[in-house]
TrEMBL record:
Residues 3-450 form the Aldehyde dehydrogenase domain. InterPro entries: Ald_DH/histidinol_DH, Ald_DH_C, Ald_DH_N, Aldehyde_DH_dom, ALDH_GabD1-like, GABD/Sad-like. Keywords: NADP, Oxidoreductase. GO terms for molecular function: aldehyde dehydrogenase [NAD(P)+] activity; succinate-semialdehyde dehydrogenase (NAD+) activity. CDD domains: ALDH_SSADH1_GabD1 (cd07100). SUPFAM superfamilies: ALDH-like (SSF53720). This is NAD-dependent succinate-semialdehyde dehydrogenase. Belongs to the aldehyde dehydrogenase family. It holds the Pfam family Aldedh. The keyword Oxidoreductase applies.
Amino acid sequence: MSQYRVQNPATGEVVETFETATDQQIEEALAQAHDAYIGWRERSIQDRAAVVRRVAELFEERKQELAEIISLEMGKPLAESIDEVEFAASIIDYYGVHGPGLATDYEIPSTIPGKAVIEQRPVGALLGVMPWNFPYYQVARFAAPNLVLGNTIMLKHAEICARSALAIEQIMRDAGVPVGGYQNLFASHDQIAEIIADARVQGVSLTGSERAGAIIGEQAGRNLKKAVLELGGIDPMIVLDADDVAEVAREAWGFRVSNGGQVCNSNKRLIVMDDIYDDFVAELERLATGLEPGDPLDLSDGQFTPLSTREAAEKVHSQVQQAVAEGATLRVGGVLSDGPAAYYSPAVLTGVPRDSATYRQEIFGPVATVYRVSSDEEAIALANDCDFGLGGSVFSTDPARAKRLSDRLEVGMTHVNTIAAESAELPFGGVKYSGFGREMGPLGMGEFVNRRLHFIAE
Ligand code: NAD
């Protein structure tokens, strides 16, 4: 089902459906986005930043309501939903506060007579195509810096995030973003292609799978539009040694199963040194044993949430089954519930053969996949034997040894003794099939900017 809707993954019940936009509505949206840009870019950056700070305040004020929407839509535990809204608000506020300072004009020395200034100017109307796994955070990363810069936004959210998509649009309107400045579009994929081709649109940012990234990137290239692609990952977490192996295993497990394991930079490959491997896996098995399905809106200890859709749960199940058929061992979990609910019990998988099809795939669900290695060289070779390159981490009691290894990771974000550092000021993005471009932090302001040369001859 590709229709925009709210469908509770805990029950499979379709709660509400929404009409896909007509071509006429898309044309009106394009016209409004362009018209709004003409006015929005003329306002001072301080003025735009003040509106964006108000957006952040409204996210905070409506936290509970916003959180309940996504827990129902895509099954996130309510406590994690609240964390997400708070994080989105902090990112939006970061650009409201620091954005103007990050977009200032600056002079560069000129060898010919005159004054050369690099100006940072908006480019126009932009299209965002966003996934369901963090419905607010993903939009915040893209929309906030661009609104401060003076660009306008058309946002196509995932089909299962219709209510959160509308709630964001309402906040933008209530905060004072002008008509056409931020528009939600319930657009079809064909309409997205038309929007990218339209001369009034200057760029597109997609967060999603590499499959969608390749399609959108191709459409952008054909139409000479700038694109930012934030795609998937199979991030390595290398554990060389530990004072308390079980403690590191608990950290690995907590991150791997958060958000139902549906996190782009989740530690999807746990690469563990031979002498601590058995203890590490034993702790994961203990953590994965005896878990029961629970209600995302009212979750108790020992319970897990559904995946985003029945389709997603079936896909994860079939990937794990394929891994087992290829020689891997499913140690615990990995049980698909009866339909139409989307529960899949958190699993521990070991012994995935390096030459299997599964080895190269992202499993977008709560599956801890563990590999045994016997040297630092073997660990880094395995970590880099991957088509993706989003993030990665190395754990050791010797931070210098961990740093030496992390320096060799082919990824966009490396970490020592933490899995993933995330905060409004820290840039996010990858290399290889994980895409290109960066969001968040100072670099997040730099993607859809006209760095215009202004030269005054002497
Ligand atoms: P998806 O690619 O199926 O969908 C993402 C968005 O793209 C949705 O809005 C979808 O409707 C749209 N889309 C898909 N095909 C399209 C087409 N042909 N034309 C126009 N729009 C199209 O991804 P998903 O399943 O929603 O999200 C999961 C994926 O996103 C995972 O691979 C995950 O790793 C990745 N992800 C990456 C990041 C990051 O920052 N790098 C963050 C979150 C998720």
